[in-house]
């Protein structure tokens, strides 16, 4: 509960957030924080570990109903993974992590293991349509995951919605009338 309360506050205030502010938001005494965490740095590290952990994203992916049409499943997956990336970015950015190198092991899962686990959950979403896919579900999952992480941002065009992203991913960039 302390970590869940602290994450949005850290995203807003960065490392300057006080334990008193976190305690007030959590509805607990400040001393309770220090019964759980040795100091503020340990709390900040725990919040970073939580934000980087793939567990929340995997739970969301696993909760997607595989009986839905593939575009709907992938749009839900895109929303879940974009939210995951947003959480990671908010915490890493606010704590001054300059990017590039993953800050280390998170709940026993480093960057490669986290990516592998998320891709496996995506592949499970693709499994019901395996016969219609041009490539194995694992490879399609890796492509989709990569597209989510590298979605280009342009100043003159709005970001693609999850549905638009899925449409381009599944059907390509050509309009229906183009050959």
UniProtKB/TrEMBL annotation:
Start-end of DNA-binding region: 18-37
Keywords, in A-Z order: DNA-binding, Transcription, Transcription regulation
Pfam families to which the protein is assigned, alphabetical: TetR_N (PF00440)
Record's keyword annotation contains DNA-binding: yes
Domain HTH tetR-type: 1-55
Name this protein carries in UniProt: TetR/AcrR family transcriptional regulator
